[in-house]
Specification:
The protein is α+β, with helices and mostly antiparallel strands and 107 residues long. Helices cover 33% and strands 37% of the residues. The protein is elongated, with a radius of gyration of 19 Å. The mean pLDDT is 83.
């Protein structure tokens, strides 16, 4: 069986995110809101979205993704993810500072 392409029949937008370390969290990619132009099924039966942008034929995305039916909703989702990412970073810094204080106050 070979890979196959199936076009996306109606507008669908992907909000792409990636996992990062230090602190461990998810953040938006450089170009987070992209149009889904189709789906690629591989030999193992895995289906992957093909997103507008990147190479002329689009680019496959295998990372975490949220889907929205309109660009406005996708952009709002991206704003909420970015807001959550900033909160996660602040929370991790607070925990890190508390651990540092605990280590340095024990005698």
């Amino acid at each position: 069986m070979t890979a196959s392409f199936h076009p996306q029949p109606y507008p669908l937008y992907a909000v792409t995110i990636e996992k990062v370390e230090n602190p461990a969290r998810f953040q938006l990619t450089e170009e987070p809101v992209r149009l889904v132009i189709g789906w690629r099924a591989d030999e193992q039966g895995d289906v992957t979205p093909l997103l507008a942008g990147g190479s002329p034929g689009g680019s496959l995305w295998t990372g975490p993704v949220f889907y929205e039916e309109t660009r406005d909703r996708a952009e709002e989702t991206a704003r909420q993810v970015a807001k959550g990412d900033r909160s996660a970073v602040r929370g991790a810094r607070v925990v890190e500072a508390a651990a540092w204080i605990d280590r340095n106050t024990e005698a």
